[in-house]
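User: I'm curious whether this sequence folds into something compact or stays loose and floppy. Could you predict its structure so I can see for myself?
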Amino acid sequence: MKKQLIFYGVIIVTFIIYNQFFQVEDAKTNTIINILFASFIFLYIGYLAYVVLQKLKKPAKSKGEFCRI
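Assistant: Here's the prediction. I'll summarize afterward.
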């Protein structure tokens, strides 16, 4: 799970850096790029939620163990 969260952080930082320093001059193209970037970010949030739910569904191996995320 740590790898997914690090990757999510990298995506967010890339989005912020793009919007601060590397914007396209054409407003329409820039808007399309931002929409696609944001859509990918929200899709990845959905994927992370799915992974967490799948890990929570798995039963613990014994009575004394708790599920680790």
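Summary: The chain has a mean pLDDT of 88. Residues 2-57 form one domain.
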